[in-house]
Amino acid sequence: MPFRWTVLIAVLLLPAAALAQTSPSRVIFRVFLSDGRVLASYGEWARVEDRVIFSIPTRLTSDPVQLHLVNIPSGRVDWPRTELYADSVRAIAYAETRGEADFARFSAEMAEVLNQVSRTAEPRARLATAEQARRSLAEWPASHYGYRIGEVRQALDVLDEVISQIRVSLGQTSFDLSLSAPLSEPPPPPLPPPSDAELVEQLVAASSLAESAVERLTLLESVLRVLDHAVGLLPEAWRDRVRRSAAADLAREQETQRAYGALRTRTLTTAAKLADRGSADDFDRLRRQVNDEHRRLGGEPSGDVAALLATIDLHAGGVQAREARKAWDKRAPIFRSYRRATNGSFDAFREAISSLEQVRRTGGPPLHVLAPVEARLTAAGRKVAGVTPPTELVSGHALILSAWQLAESALRMHRDAVASNNADLVQRASSAAAGALMLYERARADLTAAMAPPPR
User: N or C: which end of the chain has fewer CB within 10 A?
Assistant: First the structure.
C-alpha cells in the first residue's frame, strides 16, 4: 500500500519538461466562416449582438504587426468550429503561462489528501476521502483546458486500484459508476500561423463580407499596400493575380462611392431648393428617386442613404408645417366667426356649471335660483343649435349640442324632482348633469385643438 501512494504522488508531481514556460508573443485565433473560408484573428474575437469584431494581421512577418479591424455579420460564422478552435488556442496559452503553476498547486493539495488517506485507520473514512480525491482529480482537466490529462489518467488508474482494494477489505462488491466518468478530451491543437499570402487572401475575403463601403475600401487598400511592400517575398504570379483582382474590386467600390457622392450632392441641393418653394409631392418624388438610385447601385446597406432620406424628411417636415400654417391662415377667419357666434352661448353654459355641479351631487339649487339659469341655458342652446360649424369643428360642435341637451334635461328633471319629491328623478338628474359636464369639457377641448394654429 505505501508503494502505491508513492507511485501516485510521483505521477501527480511529474514535471512537464516538454512544455515551454514563456508567454506566447502572438496569439492567433480563427474565425471559421459558414462557406468554408477561414479568417485569422489577432487576439480573441468579440461577438456583439449580430456582429463579430476582430483584427486581421496584414503581415505576421513585420514588426510590429500591422492589424486591420474587421466587422462582419455573426450569421456568416460557423460558431461550433470557431468556438472549439478558440478553446484550442486558450489551452495552448494556458499551458504556456499558468498551467504548470496551477497543476503544481493542485498536485500538492492532492498529495496532502492522499497522505491523509494513508494515515487514516478507519477503512470507511479512508474510502470516502479517497473517492473525494478521485472526483477532484477527474474534474480538474475539464476546468483547465485538458492540461496534463495524460498524467491525470495515470493517477486515476492507480487511485482506482487503491479504492478497489479498500472496498474489498470492507466487503463491498459494487462500484460507483459516477467515479468512472470519462475525462474531457483536450481540444485539438491549433493551426500553424497563416502565411503572408494567406493573410492577403483573408483580407480579400473579409472585404467581401463587410457591409460598410468605407470598410470595404480600406480592406482592399490594405491588400494592395501589403502586395506592394512584399515584392519579392510572395510568388510573383500569385501576387499579380491577386493584385489585379483586388484593384478591380477597389475600382468598382470607388466608382460606386463616387456615384453615391454625386447622389448625395444632387439630393441635398434639390432638397434645399424644395425647402423654399417645394410641395409635399415634390419631396415624395425626391425620396423615390433616391431609393431608385440606391437600388440601381446595388442596394447594399448604406448609412449615407439613410442620412439622405432623413434630411429629406426634415425639409419635408418644414414644408408641411409651412403649408399647414398657410391652410390655417385661410381658415382662421371662419374660426373667428364661429367663436363670435358661440361665445355668448358658451358663457351661458359656464354660468350653469355651478348649478349642474349641485345637481350632480344630488343637492341642487333652490327652484328660485334654478329657474333663471334654466331659462338662459335653453335660450343659449337654441342659438348654438342654429350655428353651422366649419368642417373641422363638426364633431366638436355635435358634442356641444349633446352636452346642452343633457344639461337642459338635468335641470328640468331636478326641477320636477323637487316639485314631486321624487328620489328616482333626483338620481336621473344627477346622471344627466354628470354627462353634460363631461361632454362639455371634452367638446371645448376638441374645439380648441381644432382651431389652434399649427406649430411654426
Answer: C
Of 135, 165, 180, the residue that ends a domain is 180
Angle at 331 between CA 329 and CA 333, to 5 degrees: 90
Residue pLDDT, tens place only, 363-381: 878 888 888 999 999 999 9
What is the rounded CA–CA span in Å between residue 292 and residue 282?
15
Q: Is residue 447 part of a domain?
A: yes
Q: What is the pLDDT of residue 197?
A: 87
Give how many domains the chain has, as a whole number: 2
Among residues 22, 23, 59, 21, the alpha carbon closest in space to that of 40 is found at 59
Give residue for cell 359656464.
350
* Continuous segment of H or E residues that includes residue 68: strand 66-73
- Side-chain-side CA neighbours of 50 within 13 Å: the count stands at 3
**Proportion of the chain above pLDDT 90, given as a percent:** 31
Cis peptide before 64 (omega within 30 of 0): yes
Q: To which H or E segment does residue 358 belong?
A: helix 303-360
Between vectors from CA 65 to CA 63 and to CA 71, what angle results, nearest 5°?
170
- SS3 call for 225: helix
Residue 30 bridge partners (DSSP): 40
Domain boundary among 140, 164, 180: 180
433: burial class by Cβ within 10 Å (0-12, 13-18, 19+)? buried
Q: Is 296 helix (H, G, I), strand (E, B) or coil?
A: helix
| Max avg pLDDT among 10-24, 105-119, 222-236, 327-341 | 327-341
Query: Could you report the per-residue pLDDT of 247-273, keeping only the tens digit for each?
Result: 898 898 888 888 888 998 999 999 988
Residue 219 lies in a domain: no
| Residue 421 zone, left/alpha/beta (φ > 0; ψ -120 to 50; rest) | left
Q: How far is CA 79 from CA 53, 186, 202, 206, 417, in A?
A: 14, 19, 18, 17, 82
Predicted model pTM: 0.55
pLDDT recorded at residue 1:
46
Residues in contact with 154: Cβ distance below 8 Å, sequence separation at least 6, in sequence order: 11
Q: Is the residue at 190 inside a domain?
A: no
Residue 160 placed within a domain: yes
Q: Which residue range is the domain that position 339 belongs to?
A: 332-451
Cβ atoms of 129 and 113 within 8 Å: the answer is yes
Grid cell in block for residue 414? 331636478
DSSP 133: H
